[in-house]
Amino acid sequence: GSAQAEPQNPTIDSKVIARAQASDQQAFKAIYTQYQTQIFNYIYRFIGSAEDARDMTQDTFLKAYLALPKTSDDLRVGAWLYRIATNVCLDELRHRKLVKWQPWGAFISVFHPSQVAPDSPEKQAISAENTEEVQLILDKMYPRYRMALILREYHDLSYDEIAEVLNTTRPVVKSLLFRAREEFRQAYANAEHQPGRAKG
Question: Which uninterrupted H or E stretch holds 7?
Fold first, then answer.
């Protein structure tokens, strides 16, 4: 199993969102149809297992369905769904005890404010070699780095949208992406120089 092609449908309009907030199942189905592939791809690239990603995508939309009536009128449904999916992924990681969870405040404190991400994304490596190697590098990255990079490179979210998904600020997102790209570059370069690696 692998990531699926994403449908380029027009975005869901505010009337459909309002109906979904009033528990209209057809309206919710329209939102699900619009976003399910993007959300599945995001979770799949984060978790690395298609089977787990399918379950977690269902979990994300169930949580969304239950939470929708409590959301505000100006809901930005795309960023909101990514945020729910992000929390589902982090809960899964905590459950697996794969990460020793750091308080977000302590994590932010390691950044120096002068670091600004040059927007020279790792799209080349990611698009040229959409392979297990890239997935292996992503799997080893700190979860917040991984999320920021996936949202930016695979899903083309803006800094502001990523800040909304990760519930943080634009400068922190810039720092996250700066660190994530450095880490990705180093890991990718190291993989390139492994003896015995097949040259394709």
Answer: none
Q: How far apart (Å, rounded) are the C-alpha atoms in residues 39 and 84?
A: 10
What are the tokens at 189?
A: 């370069």
pLDDT tens-digit series, residues 88-110: 998 888 777 654 444 444 444 44
Confidence (pTM): 0.69
Smallest CA-to-CA distance from 19 within 77, 58, 62 is with 77
**Which residue matches tokens 């699900």?**
32
Alpha carbons 189 and 169: distance in angstroms, whole number: 30
> How far does CA 108 lie from the centroid of its chain?
19
For residue range 118-141, list pLDDT tens digits in order: 344 455 555 545 567 777 888 888
The pLDDT of 66-90, averaged and rounded, is 93
Do the Cβ atoms of 89 and 75 come closer than 8 Å?
Answer: no
Torsion, CA 66, CA 142, CA 124, CA 127, rounded to 10:
-40
CA distance 139 to 133: 10
Rounded-to-integer distance, Cα 126 and Cα 188, Å? 10
C-alpha dist (Å) from residue 131 to 2, 98, 188, 194, 199: 10, 23, 12, 16, 14
Distant-in-sequence, close-in-space partners of 135: CB < 8 Å, separation ≥ 6: 45, 48
